[in-house]
UniProtKB/TrEMBL annotation:
InterPro entries: Cro/C1-type_HTH, Lambda_DNA-bd_dom_sf
GO molecular function: DNA binding
Pfam families to which the protein is assigned, alphabetical: HTH_19 (PF12844)
Protein name: Transcriptional regulator
Amino acid sequence: MSGIGYRIKCIRKENNLNQIQFAKSIGISQGNLSEIEMGNSNPSAETLISIRTQYNVNLNWLLTGVDSEDGATYEDNYDKKLIDVFRGLNDYDKKEIIEIMLLKRRLKSEINLSYD
């Protein structure tokens, strides 16, 4: 699930807003927002501009899921934030972070197996 509705929902959740609060902030109804998030309708140009302005979102990413700065595709803003921070690290720290992530994934897998 990676359409525009999903990306808008990610923005809303990242800002800890419910549908009513988010819809009000961008000038649409909660019902309209719900339909957009479910993928049943598309946001208007005005709505997209409002989201971009209110939440400082890359419009290309919002429309396509591709960040125009580097051509990468991000599933959500967590992916983008992780990549942005990671790029600022030196090589030693990058290797260490990768090892931590692999350990975390392995431990999670082991915990899931122990519950089976």
